[in-house]
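Standup, Tuesday
Yesterday: got the pipeline producing structure tokens again.
Today: sanity-check two examples.
Blockers: none.

Example 1:
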Amino acid sequence: MHATMTWIDWMMVGIPLIVVVIIGLKAQQYVNNVSDFLAAGRVAGRYLLSVADGTAGMGLISVVALFEYNYKSGYALDFWGQFAVILGLFLTLTGFVIYRYRETRALTMAQFFEMRYSRGFRILAGFLAFLSGLLNYALFPAVGGRFLMYYCQLPDYVQFFGMNWPVFGLLMAGFLSFALIIVLLGGQLTTMVTDCVQGLFSYVIYAIVVITILYFFSISDIKEAVMDRPDGMSFFNPFNVGKLTSFNILYVMIGLFGAVYGRNAWLGNQGYYCSAANPHEQKMAGVLGMWRGGFTTLMVMLLVIGAYTFMHHPKYKEKADAVQTELVDRINFDSQATTETIRNQMLVPVALRSILPIGITGLFMALMLFLLISTDTTYMHSWGTILVQDVILPIRSVIVGDDAPISPTAQLWVLRGGIFFIAVFAWTFSFFFGQVDYIIQFFNMTGSIFLGGAGACIIGGLYWKRGTVYGAYAAMILSCVLGCGGFLLQTYWEDPIYPFLFENAPGMLEGLRSSLESIGNALPIVSWEVGPDKFPIKFPVTSTEIYFLMILICLSSYIILSLLTCKRPFNLDKMLHRGKYNLEHFVAENADKEVVEAEKEKIFEWKSLLGITSEYTRGDRILAWSVLLWTGWGFLLFLFQLICNTTFWQWGEEGWFNWWCYYTLPMNLVVGAVTTVWFSWGSSRDLYRLFRKLKEMKLAREANPSINNDLDDGTVREHQDITD
């Protein structure tokens, strides 16, 4: 074991990054118009989409957030999350929201909102999506920069030109610039291709890191460390978690509800929602997402368990004390750090540097850089294009009129300008903002500004003919007001809100304390305690709980206002291009056969529960059934554990550890090995096909410039895409 990065480690970081840049440069030559920049030409295959989207979704900040969450709460809560298995199966196999959204051919979610509601609502929703996403993403560079500093033991300042320059700011500028170059070159196309390549590298690194952790920590050492947790905070026993607060069973339940309500509502990776070759490929990419976790989940789990063992087992006490000392020393000199928050975030990364051997340290660093860059490119593209496509250009149309459209070249440059603005704002926000909450809770709070109302508007807009623009406005305005209010309370409660109330309005503060603590006593599942006895003094209602209350309010307002104002049902078939409006429902192997399965709603077949239609090939059906059988097996095991432990046989701490050791761990190793080979082959094949298709399209456009559809730029007229 070692504690510093060597030249071998840095070489492991540099070589894969060079490969990613070369492939990104190759892809950018195929960007010809706005739809290429926004939706990668709509020619992506399922494996390419699944791997690239998965890599972008599992960013560095997500890994650090999981480190923070699982180190504190263990894996006992994952048991209760098994209810999400059946829920996720239904959502994925039926293509809930995903399929219908792709049928609209919208390039952005707010474009769909204009098609379904109005241009004014598109502007409002686009601005709120942009604001919510901007605040949410603006923390990403801070976590990434701090991870690099702590993991690589970089100094706080470097001196040149006679001045001290903060390394934290320089690091953020460096990797933001790297990501910015990739996304400015070719938008969604270069973003998707580089994300996929980084995903291919990552699969190999996941496997190597998993093997390393299993080699260095014995099962007996892990068992001794995790079994020493306080009562009510078990690492594996889901029936012994009563003392967990921020992350508890209520947190899991709200997450389940939010998974349905917020389906496709978060737009950080919206470019992937419209990049597939057709709606069926989009749907199958989602089905593959049920398998793609592989070694990813196992690696994060073992890294957390390894770090926890390292920090708590007597065998490693001396090195663990050194880690704690280093954290204290670094945080004391980190002017941007909030002590407790940063200690929670950086504990596992610093411990891992002391655990992983030479070479593996560099590979893990390369992996985290891949995840950092892939998320940066995807999020900068999403929020920058939303700003332009759904706020700036619609406002311009209102001002100058629809008869003076912007040219494709000018639109591409404005899109690049919007993306550049996102990068600059993210650096500035991250450099000066002091985070006071867990990363996951920060995500929930900033995301709720848009998500609170977006779920109702998306599901209602795609599935309910009587949803109206008035209901949509009500839901989204309430989402903005409540979300911004919650964000401000979370951020400024400790200072200045709580001190002001304590000194100037003690009666109001006591009334708030009495009300919240009464609710907490009535609902033991929540812990709403108002300071000063609870330190640090945080706003007593968590971000997740605020988000749930917002959902209930916004959903109710959408339904009530829509029922009161609906005069004529909306023509969903026309918006979804179904029936006589059908444009692209064709079987991939037989372009002459129009798919009408979506229209056959009167005939019930059991396979329809799996979402199987005539678009499904034999391989597609095998894939759907494999997901069903695997998910069903997992849910049956969950029911067995639940019934067993609530009726006749409680396993206890050792029983739950043995289940993890002798079933969960081996099974995940097998699944990880299989899916690594499977997805590496599938995504490599799709990458080859993508470049071949792009080359064919480029040659065809050069031979016949008229087929280069510059009208496909996100413009909507009279509730229809202009290309219709």
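Example 2:
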Amino acid sequence: MALMISLEWNEDMCVGIDEIDADHKKILIIIAAIIDAIDINANAETIEKHFSELAACTASHFKHEEALMKTMGFEDFIEHQKGHQGFLVQLPELKNKLLNSNNAEAAGEVSQFLYDWVIEHILIADMDYVHAFYSEEKYSVSFKAIFQRSSEWLSQRVNISTRVLITALLPILGMLLLSFIAIKDNYQQYKNMLLLDNLTQIVQQVNSLTHNLQVERGLLSSYISSDYQRFSKALTSQQHKSNDEIYAFTTLLNSRKALLTEPMLIEFINSTKIDITELIIFRNGLNSTSISSEKILTGYNLIIGKLLSRVNRLSHIKMDAEFANNITAINAIVGLKEILGQQRELGTQLIDDDLSTHELIHSERYKQLYMQLGMQLNAIFIFNYSATPEQQQTCGKLCNVAKQKAFINKTIEDLMLKPGKEQNSQFWFITLTNRIDDIEIVTDKIINDLDTKTQLKLERLESRFYLVIIIISTIVVLNTLFSTILYHSVITPIRRITHALKQVTLGRYNQQMNESASKDEIGALYGAYETLRRKLLQADMSKNIIKRQQQSLLDRRKERDRYRELASRDTLTGALNRRKFNLILKQEINFAKQDKQKLSLLLLDIDHFKRINDTYGHAGGDQALRDFYDICSNSVKSSDIVARIGGEEFAILMPETDKAQAHVIAERLRHNIQALQIPYGQETIRLTASIGLAQWHEYDSFNVDEFISHTDKALYQAKRDGRNCVVEAST
């Protein structure tokens, strides 16, 4: 055993807690002593002493450990405690197995169990809770300490493959986040451009519609004031144009509503549809010749005003400030055109009233005429404030406050305040109409320029969107590819090393790690594994040599034990001989003393055995002895010991059996012997036996010889009583 199992304390077995390490040293010393005692076949007293020391030392050690575990709140405390209790329960069983078995296998099993237990207890179980104990220590509050604790927390809760994966994915996620922001910003700009494109088309359509309504309003007013004779053909043509514009505007509104999500624009479309319906109803009612010119102007002014007012409110929709200003500027110049239109109709009526200069100047319409001039100037101011320099340059003198004011004053002076000129109202109408047409041209150009600019920006945004998508997709693909390679470059070697280490734990040392040429941590792991593999391979080879030596020793011990066993057996019957019986009887008496157990002894003598030898010869006698031993072995408990201590005399030792129980067994045995029929040739040999019974008592202080002699007296008494009976020894 000394060759196979060697227990010595070394520094690598320290757990770092002095009290626990001291206990471990004591336990190792005691277990080593037990193994040595087993190896030299020490006597029972020595074995008993060592096991008592081991029980006391381990109980004290377990108490220290459990107190420490409770202090630190060790989560596997219950499981650890069960292991302690289980070992303490096993110790008496190991001791009894060792003392009750005289073969090398049992001794080897006990030694190997103690060896395996002490290695597992110190290097695995205790290392686990000591590691947890050190993990509970508090670090000082510093950046380095916080960083260290955070790293340890992460390493304990997230496996390395997940950590590497997170590290690889973080750049991708960051890129995706930035990409999302860029795409969202691009989309928002694109959405604003789409909104502006819709607004431009709506404003353009409103401008076109209101312009045609303004022309229609002027022609209708002039047509009525001229007793329905003049402007008839022009009015009819203009009404057809207005109908086309109303239809085009209605179609535009219907086509846009389903595509838009801006609440204010949707509300504009719904309200404008109502305005268009009112416009259609109003225009249908103009066929009546009884309607006055004043009412016609009021109706047109109201409808056109509603349309322009609704368009003005569209500038409040959230959009880019530059384009919001563009919409405001367009609305301002469209409003200027409408004010000029109203001024044209109002001046035409004022001239047709044929008033004197004094009456003209003091009339209400003349005052309204100048109020509208103020409104024109305000519209020009708003336009100049909101428009770009290019738009201001396009508008030119039409959007100059001083020149517009001079134009209106000169027109009023020439066509209203200078009497005697013919067709002053017609000149007035034509002059302002030309002015309105000029503004309409400017308005269309500004709207078209804005639409062109919007379309260009939409195209640029679309191009940028696709470019961003291509760039982002390329970066994400390359990043993903690189991250995947990085992930596998770390995880694959670790998995390979892990697999190789698992093979090593199974005793397979053929997994070499020579392919890594890197000089980083992975290369160091490969090198460390390869060194470990070779060391273990050397140790395994040494172990095999030791095993062969041990096997040779074990074979020799088995051979020796076999010879001992043969020397302790009766060659004829196979029963224990007297010498071996006396050794076992001595051990059982010691156990009975220690454990306060009962112990009984039967001595059996075959009645008239000499007659059997004389009648059947020695061969018949030998057969009778063999069958007698078999019936004795089969009639008692498996723990009872049957021995042949004389020619025809046998002994049966009964541990943990009192006199009453032994008497019952003895009577059953006597009856079985009496019923035994031994075939021998053509005849049958029959036997009876006299049985003496005695129980060992501690207060009698019997030794082996005295106990046998005491029982022998009862045997002789059974013979004197006529044989074939059981007699108990007197106490």
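Quick observation on example 2: Residues 315 and 354 are 43 Å apart (CA to CA). The mean pLDDT is 78.
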